[in-house]
């Protein structure tokens, strides 16, 4: 074996090919089957896609690096389930390009944050976290409430997401900008289209408390309020196991 | 330095700069409504400055032919200086954000100054800026000497070095503006990623071309590691960054993978960025600088082979240990855990090989802080690979994951191993490169050494404490069977450790500043005549000089 190597290390191309070959095996065995084994991701027929406003909010979450301190993945451990809620299922991040499972909890997990607090709490918390949680070490994001949301190209965003596998319809893509506005302006004519396209349960509210203007705060709060609520697969009792 | 380039090479460099300016212009126009345009402007500006500098030298005569009788070390010199600049910048930002966790209001009401945007500036700054430049610079140095061959030309190394730094600058400025795809250690967006692929392919070809010119029949073990670093990082980078841009005028792209597949791909990348960027590359550094500095041959040729192939094979399976108890299928978690534990064998073979090499040179370890940097690096390499295998065990991971323990583990590796071996290699190289007998001040190397060791120990102990306390508080139940602590109580308990960590980081930063001063003063010392022996072999293949006997 060492004799073989003694010859191999005299050939640059041989070494290159050997390195590529030896290093490829692990990834191929562990990653490729995740795309082909059906049980990897559970079925959740009632799961909905993110609305354009939630996509925009998610992009703000990514832009500000929130994932560096907050995970969105509740592990299958008793204390985590009791602290944060039912453990996360693979299907719940099926439309997450990229996933935001996180790796560190400087702050708490927020996989099931949606609906836990009011919009007003989120707005106050994002403007200055220490106004609502005295000991918090989270930075404030006051400029979110001052900055208008760039929503003109949301159709292109939905289109790109469709290209990587999220089932947005032509109609959703066409009305993306309008739907983003409508979701945070419940009394406007644009609001109706949002529930028509994304379901009656969709949150349609002035998330930042001001229906007149579409801000980044609207988008981020809309996103935070949908976390863990795209499907109820994780909270439903497992019916199939009984049968 | 430009005077060393031939007329032909200067024309080639000018052509590359003009192409870069055109690329920058296209980005500026295409991305005028987005942050892509800002980066286009940056590229254009750098290219125009380069074009002016290059045009001014086009009329210079060709350099003397005897340059071919020496190794081409200018890119290594510049690379080492750039690496130290990134070290200071990256460590400073790291320590700054450590203080942010103590004083969260230090953000000046500015988006760019918040923790989430600065954190990738720190991680990319130290990993890619400091570490990457040190790897590129030392790889040029090592490959020439172990092959007894000069780099094949004088433009490609500069393209690799400056092209790579352009990537780093685009990455860091992008984070400040909020351009990130959120994948840890792979945050840069699609256009920066594509550019890095170009640079990396050129780097790989340059390495192969130099190897093909070698006058030694065998490829020395340091080069195996540098080559694995270049090759596997390319594969990881391309697969993990597959994405669809919103448009060619937008900086934003959406990852090709989602959910569980994306998580597995990301941590296959993330863990092997540690393996092949922060381990394989720096092992290449260790395998050259440690034996040379100690004046001893590598202890065991066979251990070198076993650890090299063990690391190349086992590491690529280990990524899934970042996803224990998550929605990742359990069979993948179990495979990741198993291989992580097995990984200890090649890791300790490397660390043991390095330490055994020092047998017979322990007096030098005592007296020479440069060699002591390398020795401590090998010790921390052994310790943190043991800790890593331990933390990959599912039961341990249930406590350590999501806590500061992980942060402590990463810094035991990054400060104790990666930074220490780099400082050792830099302190060894600088006098050789600038034709000096020694560093400006051996005392200051000593000061740097103790600041670095103290900083690392304080940092790591603080994070061990906070991480384990955090993990235990999250899972402690009271007598009535409910959780004993709220999340915020665990956060409050972290404060003293966060202060200690920030102080440890500050010591480490101070050490790097002392190092910068020392390096600067060494460069300014009067040069002596170049060493006669340190030059490429002009004739036929000779006996392997650093090759362990077999």
TrEMBL record, chain A:
A GO molecular-function descriptor: heme binding
Gene3D superfamilies: 6.10.250.2250, Cytochrome c-like domain
Start and end residues of each Cytochrome c domain: 52-228
Key words, A-Z: Heme, Iron, Membrane, Metal-binding, Transmembrane, Transmembrane helix
InterPro entries: Cyt_c-like_dom (IPR009056), Cyt_c-like_dom_sf (IPR036909), Cyt_c_oxidase_monohaem-su/FixO (IPR003468)
Listed Pfam families: FixO
Record carries keyword Cytoplasm: no
Membrane-spanning residues: 12-35
UniProt name for this protein: Cytochrome c oxidase cbb3-type subunit 2
Gene source species: Enterovirga rhinocerotis
TrEMBL record, chain B:
Positions that bind heme b 2; high-spin: 409
The Cytochrome oxidase subunit I profile domain, residue ranges: 13-550
Protein name in the entry: cytochrome-c oxidase
One Pfam family matching this protein: COX1
E.C. number(s) listed in UniProt: 7.1.1.9
EC category name: translocase
Family per similarity comment: Belongs to the heme-copper respiratory oxidase family.
GO biological process: electron transport coupled proton transport; oxidative phosphorylation; respiratory electron transport chain
Catalytic activity: 4 Fe(II)-[cytochrome c] + O2 + 8 H(+)(in) = 4 Fe(III)-[cytochrome c] + 2 H2O + 4 H(+)(out)
Pathway stated in the Swiss-Prot or TrEMBL entry: Energy metabolism; oxidative phosphorylation
Cofactor(s) it depends on: Cu(2+); heme; heme b
Membrane topology: Multi-pass membrane protein
GO molecular function, one term: metal ion binding
TM region(s), chain numbering: 12-30, 36-58, 78-101, 121-143, 155-178, 190-208, 220-239, 267-289, 301-318, 338-361, 373-394, 414-434, 446-464, 498-520
InterPro entries named among the record's database cross-references: Cyt_c_oxase-like_su1_dom, Cyt_c_oxase-like_su1_sf, Cyt_C_Oxase_1, Cyt_c_Oxase_su1_BS, Cyt_c_oxidase_cbb3_su1
UniProt organism field: Enterovirga rhinocerotis
This protein's UniProt keywords: Cell membrane, Copper, Electron transport, Heme, Iron, Membrane, Metal-binding, Respiratory chain, Translocase, Transmembrane, Transmembrane helix, Transport
Main location: membrane
């Amino acid at each position: 074996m060492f004799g073989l190597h003694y010859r191999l290390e005299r050939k640059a191309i041989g070494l290159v090919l050997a390195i590529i070959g030896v290093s490829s095996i692990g990834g191929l065995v562990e990653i490729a089957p995740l795309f082909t084994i059906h049980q990897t991701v559970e079925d959740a027929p009632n799961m909905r896609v993110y609305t354009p406003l939630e996509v925009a909010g998610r992009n703000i979450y990514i832009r500000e690096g929130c994932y560096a301190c907050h995970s969105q993945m509740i592990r299958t451990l008793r204390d985590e389930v009791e602290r944060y809620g039912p453990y996360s299922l693979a299907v719940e991040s099926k439309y997450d390009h990229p996933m935001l499972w996180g790796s560190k909890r400087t702050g708490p997990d927020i996989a099931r944050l949606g609906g836990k607090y009011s919009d007003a709490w989120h707005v106050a918390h994002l403007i200055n976290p220490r106004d609502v949680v005295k000991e918090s070490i989270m930075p404030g994001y006051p400029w979110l409430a001052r900055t208008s949301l760039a929503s003109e190209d949301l159709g292109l965003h939905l289109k790109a997401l469709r290209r990587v596998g999220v089932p947005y319809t032509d109609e959703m893509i066409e009305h993306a900008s309008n739907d983003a506005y409508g979701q945070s302006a419940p009394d406007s004519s644009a609001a109706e289209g949002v529930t028509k396209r994304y379901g009656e349960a969709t949150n349609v509210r002035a998330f930042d408390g001001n229906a007149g203007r579409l801000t980044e705060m609207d988008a981020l709060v809309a996103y935070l309020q949908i976390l863990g609520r795209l499907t109820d697969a994780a909270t439903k009792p497992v019916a199939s196991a009984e049968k | 330095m430009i005077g060393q380039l031939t007329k032909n090479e200067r024309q080639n460099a000018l052509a590359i700069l003009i192409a870069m300016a055109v690329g920058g212009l296209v980005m500026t126009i295409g991305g005028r409504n987005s942050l892509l345009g800002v980066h286009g402007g940056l590229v254009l500006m750098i290219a125009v400055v380069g074009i002016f500098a290059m045009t001014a030298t086009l009329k210079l005569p060709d350099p003397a032919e005897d340059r071919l009788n020496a190794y081409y070390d200018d890119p290594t010199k510049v690379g080492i200086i750039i690496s130290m600049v990134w070290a200071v910048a990256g460590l400073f930002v790291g320590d700054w954000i450590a203080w942010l966790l103590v004083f969260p209001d230090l953000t000046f009401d500015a988006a760019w100054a918040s923790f989430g945007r600065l954190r990738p500036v720190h991680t990319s700054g130290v990993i890619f800026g400091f570490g990457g430049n040190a790897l590129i610079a030392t790889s040029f140095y090592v490959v020439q000497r172990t092959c007894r061959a000069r780099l094949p030309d004088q433009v490609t190394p500069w393209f690799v070095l400056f092209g790579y730094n352009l990537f780093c600058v685009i990455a860091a400025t992008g984070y400040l503006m909020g351009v990130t795809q959120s994948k840890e250690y792979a945050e840069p967006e699609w256009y920066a990623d594509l550019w890095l692929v170009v640079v990396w392919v050129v780097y790989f070809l340059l390495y192969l071309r130099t190897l093909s010119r070698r006058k030694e029949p065998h490829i020395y073990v340091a080069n195996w590691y540098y080559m694995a670093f270049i090759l596997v990082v390319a594969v990881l980078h391309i697969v993990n960054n597959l994405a669809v841009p919103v448009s060619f005028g937008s900086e934003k792209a959406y990852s090709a993978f989602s959910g569980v597949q994306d998580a597995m791909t990301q941590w296959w990348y993330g863990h092997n960025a540690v393996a092949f960027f922060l381990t394989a590359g720096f092992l290449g550094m260790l395998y050259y600088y440690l034996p040379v500095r100690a004046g001893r041959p590598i202890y065991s040729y066979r251990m070198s082979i076993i650890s090299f192939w063990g690391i190349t094979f086992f590491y690529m399976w280990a990524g899934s240990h970042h996803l224990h108890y998550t929605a990742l299928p359990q069979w993948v978690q179990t495979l990741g855990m198993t291989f992580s534990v097995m990984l200890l064998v090649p890791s300790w073979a490397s660390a043991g090989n390095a330490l055994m090499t020092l047998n017979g040179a322990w007096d030098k370890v005592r007296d020479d802080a440069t060699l002591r940097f390398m020795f401590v690096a090998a010790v921390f390499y052994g310790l943190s690979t043991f800790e890593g295998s331990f933390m990959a065990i599912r039961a341990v991971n249930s406590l350590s994951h999501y806590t500061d323990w992980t942060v402590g583990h990463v810094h035991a590796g990054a400060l104790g191993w990666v930074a220490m071996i780099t400082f050792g290699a830099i302190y060894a190289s600088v006098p050789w490169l600038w034709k000096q007998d020694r560093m400006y001040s051996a005392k200051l190397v000593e000061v740097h050494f103790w600041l670095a060791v103290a900083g690392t120990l304080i940092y790591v102990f603080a994070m061990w404490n906070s991480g384990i306390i955090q993990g235990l508080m999250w899972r402690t139940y009271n007598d009535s069977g409910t959780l004993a602590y709220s999340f915020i109580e665990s956060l409050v308990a972290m404060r003293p450790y966060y202060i200690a960590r920030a102080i440890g980081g500050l010591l480490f930063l101070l050490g790097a500043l002392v190092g910068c001063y020392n390096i600067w003063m060494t460069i300014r010392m009067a040069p002596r005549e170049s060493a006669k022996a340190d030059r490429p072999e002009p004739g036929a293949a000779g006996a392997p000089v650093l090759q362990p006997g077999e």
